[in-house]
Specification:
2 domains, elongated, 16% strand, alpha+beta, 106 residues, two-stranded antiparallel sheet, Alpha-Beta Plaits, 3-stranded antiparallel β-sheet, 2 helices
């Protein structure tokens, strides 16, 4: 079992775990309950941690999490809705005007 991710934000740790679950990689979150501890330990030592169960998948997990967690939304460009022509900001996957879903060219 190896630690693959840690963050002060417990939601990010849960998001990372959901990414692994979607890829059928077994993992566990440790130290989640320490977030409320005051005094006695350094704040960094109270951050929740994501550990992967299979050491053989360590490199795959690191590449997967790196690509998902470090994706920069501002580096993406806005898209034009094919349904109504409205310009939509990159972080949205559905047109606010006509509810057409974004279709990636990838």
């Amino acid at each position: 079992m190896r630690k693959v991710y840690s963050s002060q934000d417990v939601n990010l740790v849960h998001f990372a775990k959901s990414v692994l679950e979607a890829n059928k990689i077994e993992s566990v979150i440790l130290r989640e309950q320490l977030a409320g501890v005051v005094g006695g330990i350094a704040p960094l030592d109270a951050w929740p941690e994501l550990w992967v169960m299979d050491d053989a998948k360590l490199e795959e997990v690191r590449l997967l999490l790196d690509s998902v967690l470090n994706e920069n939304e501002t580096s993406k460009s806005a898209w034009k809705c094919p349904g109504c022509g409205e310009m939509i900001e990159s972080q949205f996957t559905q047109c606010w005007q006509c509810e057409t879903e974004f279709k990636s060219a990838e």
